[in-house]
Amino acid sequence: METGLADKVQLKIYDVSGDLVHETTLSGTPQQVDDGQGPQLAYEYLWDTKNAGSGVYIFSITSSQGDKNLKRTGRCAVIK
């Protein structure tokens, strides 16, 4: 999700039954990354899955900048 500079980025991760298993809020200046498409700003977060079992999880990312909010949901898998 492209958000540009945000006041905060909130990440929530749910199991398939809808229970919240992890959440965090990112703030501050994002890192500059270049994935071959030129320099871009990105908020990066490494989820420590040591307490998560293998399976499918649903994530929700909300980016807030002033009164503008962007939201994206999706799925990810943990395979151990």
Report on the architecture of this protein.
It is a single chain. The protein has 80 residues and is an all-beta fold. The protein contains no helices and six strands. The strands form two sheets. Strands 2-1-5-6 form a four-stranded antiparallel β-sheet, with no helix packed on it. 4% of the residues are buried. The mean pLDDT is 89.
Q: Could you report the average pLDDT, rounded to the nearest whole number?
A: 89
CATH class descriptor name? Mainly Beta
> How many H/I helices?
0
How many domain modules?
1
Please give the largest β-sheet: 4 strands, antiparallel
Structural class: mainly beta
Helix content: under 10%
The outline comes out as: globular
Q: Alpha-carbon distance between the termini?
A: 26 Å
Give the percentage of residues in beta strands: over 45%
